[in-house]
Amino acid sequence: MADPVRYTRMTTSELRETFLIEELFQPGSINCVYLDLDRAIVGSAVPLENGLQLETYDELRAVYFTERRELGVLNTGSEGVVEVDGKTYEMEHLSCLYIGRENPRILFRSSDPKQPAEFYLLSYPAHAQYPTGLVRKADVQPVEIGDPATMNRRRIYKCIHADGIASCQLVMGFTELEPGSGWNTMPPHTHMRRSEVYLYFKLPEQERIFHLMGPGRETRHLVIKSKQAVVSPGWSVHAGVGTSSYTFCWGMGGENQAYTDMDPTATADLK
Question: What pTM was computed for the model?
């Protein structure tokens, strides 16, 4: 993962290779990417006729995936089921599941293979065990913020956080933009205490997100399509504007779970 010094000399292709996860949500498979940043794992599972079991990876040096890890799962597709050590969790669209460490068997299934579930996965190391918990979109009272005049009216759904589903270090939720709004976070901010990953989805096929990143006075952008994820180190701002309204999942891990722990950058100071 690049630092803020080498970042300034990177080409567009190098920025995309380093910070953008382009190939997620492949039908019939689980795809995971291991990040050197806070040892996060970003992935997806799209089960069809057969269920998909989450296996361990050589890089983890673990007997099973959650031996020393916790996992957040957001269903961005149609209805599905996640089985955790024999217990079944029904997951409708935009349901979020937290799976604590020491759960050896995790299985993903779609209720209808012709309209599959699309499970987004975000995992961080965990030094303590917390119980598995499920929250549906209807169970979360969204925080409505922003202004149509500045094109950032949006609803924030907090799922895994200090006052919701408890976790070791993972914080996770999603944000819906209202029609006519494009900016997801403006003014932007950084938080050195934790890294963050954005997954953009529910964006029309031909539309794009222009994701702003980097130190506030040395910004770059990435052009992103639906169902792609971008990685944000603690030194980088993270904000984006779409050519259409969209939804995005935000997830964080690090040494601080306080959602409001942010260092804002004024819009007028951006360069």
Answer: 0.95
Of 97, 55, 66, 102, nearest in space to 80 by CA: 97
| CATH number 3.90.25.10 given to 6-20+139-269 | no
Strand order in the sheet with 154-160: 20-21, 228-232, 194-201, 247-254, 171-177, 154-160, 143-145
**Fold of the 24-135 domain:** Jelly Rolls (2.60.120)
List pLDDT tens digits, range 85-124.
999 999 999 999 999 999 999 999 999 999 999 999 999 9
- What sign has the CA pseudo-torsion 78, 100, 1, 214? positive
Q: Are 194 and 254 in contact (CB under 8 A)?
A: yes
Asked whether the domain spanning 24-135 has the same topology as the one spanning 6-20+139-269, the reply is yes
As a residue count, the chain comes to: 271
Task: Please state which of the ranges 35-39, 127-131, 143-147 shows the lowest mean pLDDT.
Answer: 35-39
- The 8-class DSSP code of residue 244 comes to S
